[in-house]
Amino acid sequence: MTRDSLDHLDSLARYTAASERAADQIIRAYSTSFGVATRLLGHRHRSHVRNIYALARVADELVDGVSELPGETLTQQHEALDQLETETESALRHGYSSNPIVHAFAHTARASGIDTSLTRPFFASMRTDLTDSQAHHPQVFDEQEHADYVYGSAEVIGLMCLRVFVRDEPHDEATSRELERGARSLGAAFQNVNFLRDLADDSDRLGRSYLSDQGRLSADDQARWIATIREQLGTARGTLALLPRDARLSVACALRLFARLTDRLERVPAAQLYSRRVRVPGPEKAWLIMRESIAVRRGSAAVRGSMFRKGRIA
Question: Domain with 222 in it: what CATH number?
Fold first, then answer.
């Protein structure tokens, strides 16, 4: 949207458009892959999904990035996160915030039925990360703590995006439950993949062990998480055909990229994951997206067991 195209808008609509531009800039600054994925969404979804992820990124940076500022205390971080949550809930009620990122999120939330049943678990997980990163022992997560954290930090983001996708698509109760199961599985898979590839930063800089309550990932732990991620990706892919057509391609491409990243993570010994961050090279990403795009457009992007032959993408 150009400057000229904003001139005809009323004050609130103009501020909302400007806030969505700000959200887009936040996303562009942190993730090229996410930018590609949102461009594959139908036009009616793009800004809404960016608005969701921009707020999530601001909260995440408040928890993880601000901790590096000299003199910044845990108390100050808690206060800032509490303030961000308070601003978000106020904007959900009133439809306005002086914080452009919060305002953009509230615009999306009010249009899509996103409420505090999803935002509160998110902020609760962010609050879990506010511990002393300089402690001599890592913050470890047992099985239940891991599940709770992943629900709040990732599964609810999947549910928020789902509400965007289906906001104009009525479904029966059974279909809605299945879609929610897929959205939660997708969010969990993405988070667990990120935990695996960010082991070095999480362990060394932030003092966290999300994947092992022993504080260090073993080969058996790695194998178990790889199997879990593949199961979660498979569940999400099984619900892909239920999504609106203008959301399906983006989600399908994300699934394919994370499946390939999982394959790469499996091939790196657990000990080496603490010293390197595994990536899918740009040219390979482009090839995978092209391949998935062709498959979706041919109408063959529903459940395809062959794509996960022996747990690997075909």
Answer: 1.10.600.10
